[in-house]
Amino acid sequence: MKAIEIAKAGEIKIVERPLPEVGSGDVLLKVKYVGFCGSDLSTFLGKNPMVTYPRIPGHEISAEIVTLGNQVPDSLAIGQNVTVVPYTHCGQCTSCKQKRYNACRYNQTLGVQRDGAMSEFIAVPWEKVLVANALNAIQLALVEPLTVGFHAIDNARVTDSDTVMVFGCGMIGAGAIVRAARRGAIVIAVDIDDEKLTVAKQLGADFTINSRTQDLHDEVQSMTHGDGPSVAVEAAGDPHTYRSAIEEVAFAGRVVCIGYAGTDVPIPTKLWVQKELEIMGSRNANPADFEAVIKYLSKTSPNLDLLVSKVVTVQKAGLMMKTWAESPGSLLKILVQF
């Protein structure tokens, strides 16, 4: 079968791999679409410390069941359209014992610590397969990236009394915007790209700020009547936005950090203590987040042209990755069609 492989930093190519073996508890999937994630871009650029090479990327999956192991339950059937929870969990670490499987100490994510889904077929444990026949093939590939933002809003305990400011309007930030808006919060979207801010507005943001061309502090103060947002979500992975989140969030506010910054970030501890802030990390997503995104996509049917920047063939995936690497802020989501 054909697969897309990142052989080493800066080198991506099509390779031939054997069909995966299907264990008794496994499901063999025929892959339809896989999204390129920011972690895949980091792998290509040689900036992902969790990756060894060569690596097949991909964990944003749209697929169809084609073979079932002999111990797979009857709830799964050949021909069902599915997506996949791409994380492992050990069941024994402190996170797993609290049922916070997304933060498992020993997690291995498809396409990161182990080979991913950018191939014609992939075998996965049946417990990680989510049936979503109500979604089309492209929607299925958008489920996982949206769940990460949904999970962050859950961590922040957002309600309709909150004002939520989201730094970074890529797919992760888009998920946070959607979830916060659907919970009735006032949402402020911050980015340096006007096109992404336009999308954010259509996804439910009440206000937008281009922090490159507008004064962030003045705009936030005006929008929040001098208080600042009660919740700040850092989904950009940039030292400047990490600091801005702490500076702009309200007293007694919550700061949720999703993005991985390329360098360590000096934290203004005076503001952390003086404001009595809750600063928390947010990693991956739980099954409930997947269910919430599937429900959102099936009942709302957002305009996919807003979320998907490019759909490319396997043959053009390598060129698209190189194009994305040259201008990472210009594209929201790239899907590879198998």
From TrEMBL:
Which branch of life, at top level?
Bacteria
Instruction: Give the Gene3D superfamilies listed for this entry.
Output: Medium-chain alcohol dehydrogenases, catalytic domain (3.90.180.10), NAD(P)-binding Rossmann-like Domain (3.40.50.720)
What Pfam families does its record include? Answer: ADH_N, ADH_zinc_N
GO MF terms listed in the record are: oxidoreductase activity
* Residue ranges occupied by any Alcohol dehydrogenase-like C-terminal domain in the UniProt entry: 172-298
Q: Which residues form the Alcohol dehydrogenase-like N-terminal domain?
A: 23-130
Q: Does the keyword Lipid biosynthesis apply?
A: no
Please provide the record's keywords in A-Z order: Oxidoreductase
Task: Name the CDD domains on file.
Answer: Zn_ADH7
Q: Which InterPro entries match?
A: ADH-like_C (IPR013149), ADH-like_N (IPR013154), GroES-like_sf (IPR011032), NAD(P)-bd_dom_sf (IPR036291), Zn_alcohol_dh (IPR050129)
Name the record gives this protein: Threonine dehydrogenase
Task: Tell me the classification of the organism that encodes this protein.
Answer: Bacteria, Pseudomonadati, Bacteroidota, Bacteroidia, Marinilabiliales
